[in-house]
Automatic annotation (TrEMBL):
Keywords: Cell membrane, Coiled coil, Glycoprotein, Membrane, Nucleus, Signal, Transmembrane, Transmembrane helix. It holds the Pfam family Mab-21_C. This is Inositol 1,4,5-trisphosphate receptor-interacting protein. Belongs to the ITPRIP family. It is a single-pass type I membrane protein. Gene3D superfamilies: 1.10.1410.40, 3.30.460.90. Residues 404-477 form the Mab-21-like HhH/H2TH-like domain. It comes from Horornis vulcanius.
Amino acid sequence: MPVGLFRVCLLVITAIVNHPLFFPKENGTVPENTEEIIQKMKEREESLRLEQLRLEQEIADQEATQKALEKAAVVVEESKEEKVRWDMWTALSMVIFLLIELWRQDFQEGNWQDTGGEEDDMAVLGKAFKGVAFPDKAVLASFYEKRILATTGDMARMREMVEGFADDLLEALRSVCNRDADMEVEDCMGVGSMYENWRVRKPFVCDLIVPFAPPEPYCFCCQTWCSGDSFPPEEQGYGTIKVCRADEDATGCICDKTKLGEDMLCLLHSQVSSTRPSSEMEDLLCFKNTQYLDADQVMKWFQIAVTKAWNRISHKYEFDLSFSLLDSPGALKIKFKSGKSIAFNLTPVVQYENSDVYFISHFPRSSLAADIPSSTHWFLTFAVYERRFIQLVSKTLPANACHVSCLQILSFLHGKQCSLTGPSGLTNYHLKTVLLHLLQARPSQDWAPEKLEARLQDMLKFLEKCLHEKKLYHFFIGNGKVPAELGFPIIFQRAEPLNLFRPFVLRRDIYRKMVDTFHEMLRNMSALINEYTVHIPLAHTNGIRKEPL
């Protein structure tokens, strides 16, 4: 027992003696180890804090990504719903567009030409027409009798003289030409205002067209803008004329379009026949290195041929013949020894297939073909059909109808205004086109002679409407209501309507000048008419009778 107590006491004493708090100076490494441990613990705590921040940042990024994905899913879902709604609107818009297009085609085929009643006409009027003092029936009748009829009495005699001389000149032209190599010239035809009896402005000029054809074995293969191939908008109304052999397809063989190998030979064409000398095609008045008829070459050939023909027959006549205008190669002038002169235009043309539509090389005194794309592009003229249409409609109108009188008065006013303010883009052909549309739209009884004033107003209103909309459609092209009696080619009836005012859409200066000239003509109309009208007592205003044309 004592031994056990002793052992316990010895153990307690040993533990107390070895405790570090009792001997700090003897054990100096303890505090240093503690600071190191504390430093490591701080570093560990800092690393744990940084790790915690990194983990929190990753968690935040994941949450943001998750939210972005959820938002994108919502946007995709909304876009799908919007696309469904947009597809519905697109389909609806397409249906509306098709309905409008169908209505527009019907509108252009003739419904738009109908001027309707007087209320519809008044709705078309612009500010410039309101307040204009329009001459009454008596003043118009007196003006027509004194100014128009008095100056147009010699037209028939002049036409007869010019046609007789032109036939003699063309006969001489045929005699000086080589029948085996030169173009074959046919008989001339009169077209335009002189032959439609509505020309009023002097000097009177007869317009004659002369069809011609190539020598055998060649022929003309004509292609128009509405024949199927794509033509740019600025070439609408034009066509090209290809000189082909009579036994050759107009489109040409495939050997002309593809490069055959040296060991391959076309069974239809030999190398000699497929390659024509350039000089041969130039002799046929084609553009250089092409088979397309060149309008400039044709006019040079025609001038030389006319000069030779005149030299052959000049001894038969007691007057001189000369070319009057440099920019119009077919413009000729007869000069008498008395000092008087007669001007006429002799223009070569090419017949389109078997119709009375012609390719014309140039338009004398006209801006219709002012910007020809190239000399191989020929403008199409429907002058023969226009003359026939007027003659056909005139047979159904009342006696002494006022349709020609309206065109004559409007042409006179426009010419007078242009002499005061200068020429504009508006031409007599535009005025005639307006009349053609109204002749088709108005019933026959509306053209009675006593309705001259109303129909003249209709023409002015229609023209103002076209100027405002910048749209005046060609009467024949795209018009499905052309009388079948004319035998008009169906290809042009089915074509897109041709806007005669299209060249003025991009040329605002010319369009502005044209509109200003029209408005000035409206304001000066009464003064221009009264200048050539004698005073008429009011008691006789209802007794004026219009003289027949």
